[in-house]
Amino acid sequence: MEQQSSQVDVESLKSSVRRRGNCVDAFLGMSILILFVAVTALAVGGMLVVKELRSELQAPKSEFARLGITDSPSPAYKMQNFAFLKPIKSQLDNMTMPWHSVKFFGSTSVGSNFHYEPDSRSLKPLKTGIYFMYIQVNVSCTYKCKAGVLKVKVFDKLTCNVELTADVEKTTVSKKCWTVEQLDSNKLVALMTVPENKLENWALDLNNSGLGIFLVE
Q: Smallest Cα–Cα separation from 201: which of 137, 140, 151?
């Protein structure tokens, strides 16, 4: 009888171990599934964030489209909160950068909530708020260019350092820099700084460089 009882206990123990093993397997399976779903969600979220940032840094025309500005009869509300300027001088030197507005949708690219002063080369927001501001810098090597760092700085709000390598061919270097800042009605001036060698034979691409800003809230 004792031997039979022992056999029953062993069988009962094996059955219990099998049940626990099945539970552990099920738990591990659910954990892996949950982890997979979480990683997938993070990956999708990351892609959406990158896509949004890329859309923020597109050419000015894409900015208008992203903000819902079209060539319809009444784009005034969105247009007034946006400004875009193109550089005037292609030479790279230590200077306050001169800009000019461009024609867009039959109007100027400087909205009514901004004021650009050509004499002081400054752009002034007329409303206090949070702004998205970006600089697009395209520089081309014309012939036997030396290495150096080109710096474009909008006061203490935005700094864009463009690293240029020594080159003997016609090469274009492009960089986009952006920031989100709380701004008041102080004037914004872009300062260009070059190293001692003056970055000779490097030239700013006037058509594909620019300064953009729009009111977020």
A: 140
